[in-house]
Amino acid sequence: MFGPPTPRGTTGEETAFNDYPLSEVPAKARRGVLPLIMILIGFVFFTPTMLSGARLGAAFRPSELLAVLVVGSLILGTYVAVLGVIGARTGLTTVLLARYTLGRAGAKWADILLGGTQVCWYAVTAAFLADLLASAFGWQEHTWLIIVVAASFTGVTAYFGYRGLEALSAVSVPLMLLLMGWVAAQAWREIDTAGGLDAVEPTSSLAWATAVTIVVGTFVSGGTQTPNWTRFARKPSHALMATFGAFFFANLMMLVFGAVGAIAYQEPDFVAVLLQLNLTVAAVVLLVFNIWTTQDNSAYSFGVAGAEMFGVNDKRPFIVGGVIVAVILALSGIYEALPQYLVLLGVFIPPLGGVIIGDYLFVWRGRLPRLDKTRFVRFRWDCLSAYALGTLVAWLSDRLSVGLPPVQGILTAFLAVPLFTWGLRRLGVRSMHTVRPEKDDEPGRPDDDVHGQPGDEAATMASAAGASEGRP
């Protein structure tokens, strides 16, 4: 009756191995800050991000470019850091947080949106990796085989859970930093030889708001899923450091690298720069690790989304299934048409993060009741309405080229939560979950009478439930 459906025969050890896809991460399974930083940096070290940096680098003088990159990265880092802290405090994945925010049935939209988007990106990236490897070694006739092998190989670490992601990142992140740092130094030397940054003139034009939107858009969709990893943080402060460090500093670094590479070599992709310098082995190593650390996080995300979608306490079948679907998409050639639709989906994802943050802060007052103490309603109409409004604002902003669509979608959804919650409450519409009291046998307080209402007993009961269970 209460909490998530858990299959019979599931043991604690199995749940730990599967990374607790349908429950809170317990204190004994929490990890230190360094592994989390490595995992998130590996996630944002993504070659296409450098392409965005190159596009911006061609439109602004260096001083203006730096301002654009810093402002955009600051917005992105702040948004993701807030979600990361919520994940650490609750121990829940993004899709489980969505269950509190959107309801038991409403959360299925989050599963489809987040999981489906990551499967599609997995297909696009697998094909991208295969094309580059085929070009580097002249294997064009075997591109299909490279897609199958690459897609299967890069999903292995996600299959083994958080520890698999941790092991890969511990090796790949320092190596990628070393290689990219070396290429950046070579590129800077080229720029200095050509007259320095003062000699750089824009070759295209781009509105400031559009440029900031591009920066925020590099990882705003992926960043919405950071609770999937920060739920393993021992302290909320660890999640704050890791998320802001990755999505502000590391993502900013990738954008700068792309701009510098484009200015020096007319090539934003450092892998292509290494190939130009006849460093094929180094290029392949950088390419594989660069893609792998992003792909395994994507696979992990659609794995936990599938687990919530079908109520199965095991993410592994959905990782395998998602990889198979991604391979089919990549082999069919459909992946070539996916990016434009995935960009559109990017309009729908940021408001989800905004409504989760708004619900957590305004309705639950920073204290979620435990899953096993909560009977979830099918739909949270207040938060669903706030999400719909945020999505509409983001879509209109994008279509009309007004402001920063992702930011406006997030803020609209965030601020609309208390307004819709108050409005539905005034209309007498129940839109809250039932929270089991501290003592089930307390006289006069049967389960069905414990109906939390926003702003009063719901927050009190949720706080009591969280405090009684040692919730941070």
TrEMBL record:
Compartments where located: Membrane
Record field: compositional bias (Basic and acidic residues): 435-451
GO terms for MF: cytosine transmembrane transporter activity
InterPro entries: CodB, Pur-cyt_permease
Major subcellular site: membrane
Pfam family of the protein (one): Transp_cyt_pur
Keyword Transmembrane belongs to the record: yes
Compositional bias per record (Low complexity), positions renumbered to this chain: 457-472
Transmembrane segments: 33-53, 65-88, 109-130, 142-160, 167-185, 205-223, 244-264, 270-292, 318-335, 341-364, 376-396, 402-424
Origin: domain of life: Bacteria
Gene Ontology CC terms, in alphabetical order: plasma membrane
Region (Disordered): 435-472
Keywords assigned by UniProt, alphabetized: Membrane, Transmembrane, Transmembrane helix
Membrane topology field: Multi-pass membrane protein
UniProt xrefs under NCBIfam families: PRK11017.1
Family, similarity comment: Belongs to the purine-cytosine permease (2.A.39) family.
Name the UniProt record assigns to this protein: Cytosine permease
Originating organism: Phytoactinopolyspora alkaliphila
